[in-house]
Amino acid sequence: MKNVTIHEIAKALNVNSSTVSRALNDSDRVTAKTKRKVLEKAKEMGYQRNMLASNLRRKKSNTIGVVVPRISRHFFSSTIAGIEETAYKLGFNVIICQSLEELEKEELIIENLIANRVDGILISVSMGTKKGEHLANCLNNRIPVVFFDRHLEGFPDMGKVLIDDQLGAYRATEHLIQKGCKKIGHFSGPKSLLIYKNRLEGYKMALKNYHIPYDESYVLTSKLMKEDGLEMAKKILKEHSDLDGLFCSNDTSAVGAFGYFKTIGKRVPEDIAIVGFSNEPFSALTEPSLTTIDQSGEEIGKAACTLLLKHIASGNTLITNETVILNPKLIERGSSQRQTATIF
Amino acid sequence: MKNVTIHEIAKALNVNSSTVSRALNDSDRVTAKTKRKVLEKAKEMGYQRNMLASNLRRKKSNTIGVVVPRISRHFFSSTIAGIEETAYKLGFNVIICQSLEELEKEELIIENLIANRVDGILISVSMGTKKGEHLANCLNNRIPVVFFDRHLEGFPDMGKVLIDDQLGAYRATEHLIQKGCKKIGHFSGPKSLLIYKNRLEGYKMALKNYHIPYDESYVLTSKLMKEDGLEMAKKILKEHSDLDGLFCSNDTSAVGAFGYFKTIGKRVPEDIAIVGFSNEPFSALTEPSLTTIDQSGEEIGKAACTLLLKHIASGNTLITNETVILNPKLIERGSSQRQTATIF
DNA sequence: ATAATTAATACAATCGATTGTATTAATTGT
DNA sequence: ACAATTAATACAATCGATTGTATTAATTAT
């Protein structure tokens, strides 16, 4: 069975293919009656518009490319959910690609997205991405780029959607203080990553604001795996048996600490209140459930996609350093629900 | 800056665009010297091949469409990872779409994939998908379809990659028996879904094989949320205080049961051993960690993609009911590690 | 040295939809 | 009723790459 094109329809109806095209696109240059006839015939013949041809002619693909390090990470998949929802509403398709944290693959992906003439690109760069020539190349091809979450410095012509890590950490720490904690520890991550530096800053700032002295020995650094959490919990308790609150830079390490506290009979949250960071899906499932900071991947995705589509719609006036900073949200759960110390 | 096409390159080098095209495609109809010249010029001019034009002409998009209910579910995102890896190796692009469990959206997606002339479609149908006209329509357009995980009955011309749920459940139950459990409960899901029926069957079969009488009252049914797990745990213990093993049809409900057992002082695994199903990322993080059945999304994705690409490569000889059934794997963790009862 | 063969490149049609311009048909005004 | 205007449709070029066929150049054979 041959592929049905507008030309077949035109022939069958004895009209010109341009009329068919206009009818299918609901142009006002064609009568309602003709439209009806065309639509009918199209359905009858099982016509499926060829987007390749359409896109080629219009020089628009109505498609945006999304590049993330790894699709199976919850944060990214929820980001994608947000992007998809937004794009979908405006009739855009989404091509999703994963760099697997490798610059080389990321470069290939970008090359490919350009070749496919996407209308724009959303990217959260890989850990291996130090330089951004491949991204600059997008702009050369008049394809706007918006970073979300992980971004590169020095690209003023690209939009950015970031989360305020410092604020998130501040809120987490403040929450612990408001729950009556006086001796609050902090598990930090590799200082090479900006997010962990910012979270540490937020922690410090909250302490300062509430007149709690900052003590370096309350801050431990690791890769924040579950085992690290356990080890750090052990270590911090040995040094500070009076610990009554803990703010972890991610949920995984919080779960590790959790486990250790339980084995030695410390109760959570009665003896030690815990707040994590990220709101991983499992943090609602722990016992007690884990208070944490929600980065809302969905929100980030929506914001990034909105920013990108706005610029596409504006006919690609280059994005001059437009940066959206989102506020993370505290998700209060069991691990921090201790009776507030009565002050009066 | 104008978009560079093969024609610009041709003009610049004073050759014909067909020669440029062939040079770029490394055809043997053009001299090595000319190829070199063309490649050089192409790079110099910043040429980016227009895939839309190429695909239109070749009537191939080198792209496959993937449709899943929800990208943020770990199982699906790991499936996609497997698909991507396989497709990528063979030079195929992947368009990922989510139906959000709605037939209507799924239909739109399929429509769109056909319009974009994808070379094939991989789909795990939505819960709302009862009929498959939209999928039949793919075959009408000579686009092969392969189901993975969730499939529709009555489509002999589409490939299928499934997991043997019954076997998985059998292994889970057998494992509990081998760990010395005698009174094994089972949390089942909505019986409308085949997977839960099959898991129940596997549970029964294991009991039978090991001469343990099947008792209906040891099987509870729910939607398998965390709260359901907690409730069911409470209920089953009330009726059967001698419960010493529990096989849950998913990890989430297992975590719920977990929590309840702990609050009433039942130890896991010493008093009650637990096995879940799915190997969600959080199941390695619970305390103790959860023994479970791994469905290996990656494997399924790879298998499905391989099957599809095989048929695309074969020039779309229709897939006559090729079905691949994968074996789930038992992941032994803490929640089932009790000393094996000495028999002698 | 010329015919025969092969290699290298040029020409032109094609993929299917879109769109500016031209043409014909229908409507309105006077 | 005829010109003027507007509505509806037809024509033809275009998007950029591919590919079968034709042509020219280079090589080999006789």
Automatic annotation (TrEMBL), chains A, B:
CDD domains found in the cross-reference section: HTH_LacI, PBP1_LacI_sugar_binding-like
Keywords, sorted A to Z: DNA-binding, Transcription, Transcription regulation
PROSITE patterns with a match to the protein in the record: HTH_LACI_2
Residues passing through the membrane, by range: none
Lineage top rank: taxon: Bacteria
SMART domains per the UniProt record, alphabetical: HTH_LACI
Gene Ontology molecular function terms on file: DNA-binding transcription factor activity; transcription cis-regulatory region binding
Pfam families: LacI, Peripla_BP_1
Domain HTH lacI-type stretches: 4-58
Keyword DNA-binding: yes
Keyword Cell inner membrane: no
Name of protein: Transcriptional regulator, LacI family
